[in-house]
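Notebook, p. 212. Picked up where the previous page left off. The plan for this session was modest: take the two constructs that came back from the sequencing core last week, fold each one, and keep the raw output in the notebook itself so nobody has to go hunting through shared drives later. Recording the first one now, exactly as returned: residue sequence, then the structure token string.
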Amino acid sequence: MAMDIISTKGVAEVLGVSEATVKRWADAGTLKCFRTAGGHRKFRLRDVRAFLTDQMDSPDAVGEASVGLAAELTREQLEARALALSSDVDALVSLIARERMRGRSLAHVFDEVIAPAMSQIGESWAAGKLTTAQEHVASNALIETIARVRPLIERPSTRYRGRAICTCLGDEQHDIGVRVVGLILAAEGFRTSMLGGNVPTSDIARMVASEQPALVALSASGHANLERLRSDIAIVAGAAAASQTRVLAGGHGFARLASVPSNVSRFFKLQEFVTLVKEPNG
């Protein structure tokens, strides 16, 4: 089956409604579909995307489409959610490019469009509404999207502002956040080294001490062990202080800490991160 054709169940999972609702929309002609030889409804992704646009422009036209996900997410967020779940990386890249052409910063697009969409996918997975496989499809689609966007925003090597190391702390496995941070740093003119997740803290500290980068960007999710996180950030901050390296820490894990070392700046959104990066001492 072509990758741009999905079943009634697939559409229901993407839109966050029941299969009966999808069938009713299809039978009413609100959501375009076609029938297989066996009489089964099939849907093209472009028609689902068009439906999402129409739904947000005129919510009363589709009844139940005005509740549920449509009430939780904006049109752009709904679109990003659908594209991630259907692994449509080309369209995700186009969505980001479209938002950039509207004058929105890369940080704004990830803060206000991509992050809420991915957060909703995570909540649906936790509630048992999406399978682990579907959550992985969406996450990997975003990782590939980040890789595809990077060559479009990187500056020439002659204009690098400095070296930046991007990493998670401790046994953190969720590295999408730090990958996005690396993308933002590339857009801001830094040459980044991506360590990702599950890196020994001692290795990070040694790299900071030996390479003396201009900046270290750290990430930790809300699932992080706080005692270990507190110890890990102290070790990295110590190495950074000796080399006069700035340390910026983001993610729910760091937000849960009562305090961080004095040479560590916390951020809670990418737009805050960009502001910190652009400070005179940065």
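Okay, moving on. Second construct, recorded in the same format:
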Amino acid sequence: MNGLFWALFFTISIFFGSIYVDTQHQLNANNNAGEASAISGNMMVYRNAVSTYAQANTGTTGTVADASLSLPTWYTKISGVSNYVTGGKGYVYYSNQRPEWAYQLLKDTNNTMLSGIKRSGVLYNPISGTSSISIPGAIPDESVVYGDG
């Protein structure tokens, strides 16, 4: 009887342990998807302001201070999101090297060819592959990028 009890106990423990692990994996997946969506939305709002600034200040090269951008009063930039302006074009990038989040940005921007990952100086689009779009050297490799056309 004692052996049967322990066998049943371990079987039940393994069963509930596997349910717990599956639940934790699902929660982590949901958290990652939510975080990717938040960063994507944050980048889209920021890119609009950076793009507007770049087009109005074509001689500017470098990072533009947030105070110089026409950002909505409710906007709070997520840590890791930055900008770079050159030649009348604006680039917004997320430098925390989470390339899988480029898929979320791509989805949120209706598969624009102007979003992806900087790889070897050019934009890599997760759907179409390596593009001919050059990304400024100041933007770190493997950053998720959303740029101007």
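Notes on construct two before I forget. The chain has one domain: 2-147.
Flagging for discussion at group meeting.
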